[in-house]
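Weekly modeling sync, notes
Attendees: S.R. (lead), two postdocs, one rotation student

Agenda item 3: backlog of single-chain predictions. S.R. asked that every request posted to the team notebook include the full sequence so nobody has to chase files. The rotation student volunteered to paste the first one in as an example of the format we agreed on. Action items at the bottom.

Example entry:
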Amino acid sequence: MAYGLPIIATSMTGAKEQVRFGFNALETADDPTELAAHITRLVRDSGLRKKLGKNSRIVYESLESHAKMVNRYEQLFEQSQR
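Predicted structure, as returned to the notebook:
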């Protein structure tokens, strides 16, 4: 996403928090045929490829940094111990 590229991902744990299916990513099941179809679609459709890529950068910039995420978890753990 940092490079402004379109994403193809499964909806596994973690991916849903990082990508926005339909906005910067195409969703695929654990199916090689479907994955190949998505790749082919992106190769053939430069408009879709550019739109998803541009949106990937937007999503990337909206995500908090690793350091901020760790800090938030630390605060949560500290609050739960009180």
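Discussion: group reviewed the output briefly. The radius of gyration is 16 Å.
Action items: rotation student to repeat for the remaining queue; S.R. to check formatting next week.
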